[in-house]
Amino acid sequence: METEALAAASQVDFSMWALFARASLLVKLVMLMLIAASVWSWTIAIRKALSYRKARAEAERFDAAFWSGEPLDDLYRKLGPEPSGRAASVFAAGMAEWQRSHRNDGRMIPGAQARIERSMDVTIAREAEDLESGLPILATIGSVAPFIGLFGTVWGIMTAFIDIAEQQNTNLAVVAPGIAEALLATGLGLLAAIPAVIFYNKLSADQGRIVGEYEAFADEFSTILSRQLDS
Q: Is residue 177's pLDDT more than 90?
């Protein structure tokens, strides 16, 4: 009897597609949801990685121009009030407030230093929010996907046991396919969650470093302007 059961089980197709095709409608929906979540997380990760690489390259080019010795007013005129680079935008925000703080007689309006710093802080916050967009989705997928997969597994196992009860047969050929289909949902949940968690941790660290560089530049730039205010 055991030999016959093993022989019957060996005839069952356990390929990924076959397991998906035999699953119940609800388990299929769970699997499709997890596959979509996985594709979504990879799309976000690739897009953010390219965006961060571009931001770092822009920052390097701007740093080279800023520390080249070129007068700041000339650099600001060259970049314009709304430059495309993120680091340059922080500089432009500070320079715009610097120029607005000059009176017609050339003297500075009181409180210029605080306004310049606040203007750059607002720009940094806006850039940080843009850099962070998409990361909460990765965090959500990483935390929720395993439980969605587990739900599909529980439902699939319940369905398999119902089939066993209806057929009054605990033959391996009857039990194994249903259990395998159910466990596939857990596997897909982990397949979606693990990369999403890795992507989130890596990209969050990158985002923090980039924003930290903007803040460090703002502090240096504020110090330079402070010297001119005090001179």
A: no
